[in-house]
């Protein structure tokens, strides 16, 4: 978007203080990033959810660092005036600090991200702190953490009892102390998400976490119903049905090709006068006739 100034982590914290919500959406390629930027999104998330919505995997676990670098670089080309956060995929920040920083370096230098996102709470605080000390902004992510879906027993709402609420609060505070500039709260009860948002000085960004967060994030394909087999989700509001429009458009195209109504006269290019006769003379098959 011409003239748009990208946010930074200082401005985001000020927006929280001023009560101005942050609007974040995922993007996975050049055109989706362009459109999201033109629509005014504050932040773009190159999510490892691309494993589900782009690659067709059952989870985010198969997504690799190379996948994230490739898609992050595409998004960065499409949205040159928007703050871009890129997910660190499964098991790329649970080894040594040196290995973790090498992976971060790739997302920043090759993927052109402005920040990285990491799933987990207190258990990854040391890695978060090391990355922040290296000069890279980190967005935390707690609640439902899809990379740990096999460990936490599926896609379940978090924060339903007092013990779980305390765990989430402790994790959020640990990420804040480690230097994270914000925290994504996914599938967390509204009461717990609101309490965490009030307790932290850094922004919270909710997805299925209710109205008390400092911002919201949704998946591009959910917002636009951009899939053939879309399943409704309680925490999502869809704003367009691209899947139906795409299917209808391609169906009409196939029909036009089959009945020869495409290409029509307005879609073809004509040669100079006399070329038809010369072609017939050259190849001995008479004048070249074309459909009308």
Automatic annotation (TrEMBL):
Binding site for Mg(2+): 48, 87, 119
Chief location: cytoplasm
GO cellular component annotations of the record: cytoplasm
Cofactor note: Binds 1 Mg(2+) ion per subunit.
Residues of the signal peptide: none
Pathway in which this enzyme or protein is active: Cofactor biosynthesis; (R)-pantothenate biosynthesis; (R)-pantoate from 3-methyl-2-oxobutanoate: step 1/2
Cofactor(s) this protein cannot do without: Mg(2+)
Class of this enzyme: transferase
InterPro entries attached to this UniProt entry: Pantoate_hydroxy_MeTrfase (IPR003700), Pyrv/PenolPyrv_kinase-like_dom (IPR015813), Pyrv_kinase-like_dom_sf (IPR040442)
Reactions that this protein is recorded to catalyse: (6R)-5,10-methylene-5,6,7,8-tetrahydrofolate + 3-methyl-2-oxobutanoate + H2O = 2-dehydropantoate + (6S)-5,6,7,8-tetrahydrofolate
Catalytic residue positions: 186 (proton acceptor)
Localization per Swiss-Prot or TrEMBL: Cytoplasm
Keywords: Cytoplasm, Magnesium, Metal-binding, Pantothenate biosynthesis, Transferase
Enzyme Commission code: 2.1.2.11
Residues that coordinate or bind 3-methyl-2-oxobutanoate: 48-49, 87, 117
GO molecular function: 3-methyl-2-oxobutanoate hydroxymethyltransferase activity; magnesium ion binding
GO biological process: pantothenate biosynthetic process
Function recorded in the entry: Catalyzes the reversible reaction in which hydroxymethyl group from 5,10-methylenetetrahydrofolate is transferred onto alpha-ketoisovalerate to form ketopantoate.
Assembly description: Homodecamer; pentamer of dimers.
Entry's family note: Belongs to the PanB family.
Protein known as: 3-methyl-2-oxobutanoate hydroxymethyltransferase
């Amino acid at each position: 978007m011409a003239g748009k100034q990208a946010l930074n982590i200082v401005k985001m914290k000020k927006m929280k203080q001023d009560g101005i919500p942050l609007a974040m959406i995922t993007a996975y390629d050049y055109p989706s990033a362009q459109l999201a930027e033109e629509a005014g999104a504050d932040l773009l998330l190159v999510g490892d959810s691309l494993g589900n919505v782009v690659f067709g995997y059952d989870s985010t676990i198969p997504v690799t660092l190379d996948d994230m670098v490739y898609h992050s670089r595409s998004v960065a080309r499409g949205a040159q005036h928007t703050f871009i956060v890129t997910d660190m995929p499964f098991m790329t920040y649970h080894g040594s600090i040196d290995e973790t920083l090498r992976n971060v370096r790739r997302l920043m230098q090759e993927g052109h991200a402005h920040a990285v996102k990491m799933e987990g709470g207190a258990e990854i605080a040391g890695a978060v702190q090391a990355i922040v000390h290296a000069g890279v902004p980190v967005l935390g992510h707690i609640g439902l953490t899809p990379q740990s879906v096999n460990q936490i027993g599926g896609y379940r709402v978090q924060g339903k009892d007092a013990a779980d609420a305390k765990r989430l609060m402790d994790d959020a505070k640990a990420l804040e102390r480690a230097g994270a500039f914000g925290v994504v709260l996914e599938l967390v009860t509204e009461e717990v998400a609101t309490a965490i948002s009030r307790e932290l000085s850094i922004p919270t960004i909710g997805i299925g976490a209710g109205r008390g967060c400092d911002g919201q994030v949704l998946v591009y394909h959910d917002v636009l119903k951009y899939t053939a087999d879309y399943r409704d989700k309680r925490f999502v509001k869809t704003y367009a049905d691209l899947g139906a429009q795409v299917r209808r458009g391609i169906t009409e195209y196939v029909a036009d090709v089959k009945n020869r109504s495409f290409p029509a006269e307005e879609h073809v290019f004509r040669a100079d006068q006399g070329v038809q006769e010369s072609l017939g003379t050259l190849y001995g098959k008479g004048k070249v006739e074309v459909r009308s």
